[in-house]
Inverse folding.
């Protein structure tokens, strides 16, 4: 189990988490900032200059869940993580990776009004022997307060919020321990993986009257997706697409009405499995169907219809290429065979 204590600088995460470890037998304090320090020490300066924060490094976001899982394998129990995480896409990526490893996450946000935060930061001395470094640290922490204010909309929706203004670190820790026992902050992501093998997955493209395509926003990854999922053992891919549309959107589609648009071989990248990806045309949704769309909150956060151009900033590069090819096939009345989202030497543009 992981207790992730979020919040901006000055809110008291570190002190509260130290107290929390004392309250929870068998718990371990894990600060991902150490991974950021490690990367700052090993990466070339030119790479570090390209990012404003170590959290912007994909390596940091991959290493944090891997390290957390490794620590828990070494010392099973509870991992207490004091870490500011203000970008929703980064939260999706890290928490999704933790869920894929079978780790339960309890997500808290410690909160205090900005006047209190500024006062706390102003009185906090991090480098008593280096006034210049201390002043720079204080300036950097104050500069990030507006980022927290902007993130409050999604943070306060995603996590259990605890106002620390009138609480001591011990009181905060006691409250956190009680809320964990109640399960009041358990993150509902379900991302079970029963195999490390490559998979077959089926997706369905759905359209509005303007031929914009429907995308969904998973809670367990930073990029948007097509409705769909892994084909279960013994299941036909077309039926898998119909099942996923029902589970993810509440739609009842006719499998005989689906048309195959693209087959894409997706290579394995890091811990993410590869395999064959089938994309079907599910047709246009009526206004009544759109009004009845229902999302499972433990998997999907939102849905929207987008043009191909709009989808480029929402999808990963490979999925964007897959969508572009599938839409081309839809317009031409064909089906395409792809590898890594690109037409392969054989089978590309074959009649469907």
């Amino acid at each position: 189990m992981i207790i992730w204590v979020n919040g901006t600088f000055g809110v008291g995460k570190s002190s509260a988490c130290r107290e929390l470890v004392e309250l929870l037998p068998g718990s371990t304090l894990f600060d991902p900032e150490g991974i950021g320090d490690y990367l700052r020490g090993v990466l070339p300066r030119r790479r570090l200059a390209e990012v404003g924060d170590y959290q912007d490094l994909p390596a940091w976001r991959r290493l944090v869940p891997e390290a957390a899982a490794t620590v828990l394998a070494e010392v099973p129990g509870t991992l207490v993580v004091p870490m500011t995480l203000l970008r929703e896409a980064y939260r999706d990526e890290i928490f999704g990776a933790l869920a894929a490893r079978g780790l339960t996450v309890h997500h808290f946000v410690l909160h205090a009004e900005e006047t209190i935060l500024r006062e706390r930061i102003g009185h906090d001395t991090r480098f008593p022997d280096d006034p210049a470094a201390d002043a720079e640290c204080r300036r950097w922490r104050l500069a990030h307060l507006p980022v927290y204010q902007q993130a409050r909309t999604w943070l306060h929706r995603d996590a259990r919020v605890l106002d620390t203004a009138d609480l001591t670190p011990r009181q905060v820790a006691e409250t956190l321990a009680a809320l964990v026992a109640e399960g009041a902050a358990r993150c509902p992501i379900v991302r079970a993986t029963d195999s490390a093998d490559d998979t077959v997955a089926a997706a369905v493209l759905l359209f509005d009257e303007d031929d914009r395509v429907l995308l969904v926003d998973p809670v367990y990854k930073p990029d948007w997706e097509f409705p769909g999922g892994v084909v279960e053992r013994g299941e036909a891919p077309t039926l898998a697409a119909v099942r996923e549309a029902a589970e993810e959107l509440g739609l009842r589609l006719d499998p005989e009405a689906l048309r195959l648009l693209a087959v894409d071989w997706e290579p394995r990248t890091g811990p993410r499995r590869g395999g064959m990806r089938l994309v079907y045309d599910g047709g246009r949704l009526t206004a009544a169907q759109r009004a009845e769309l229902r999302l499972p909150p433990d998997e999907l956060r939102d849905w929207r219809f987008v043009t191909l151009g709009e989808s480029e900033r929402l999808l990963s590069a490979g999925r964007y290429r897959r969508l572009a090819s599938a839409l081309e096939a839809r317009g031409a009345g064909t089906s395409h065979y792809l590898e890594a989202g690109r037409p392969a030497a054989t089978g590309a543009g074959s009649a469907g």
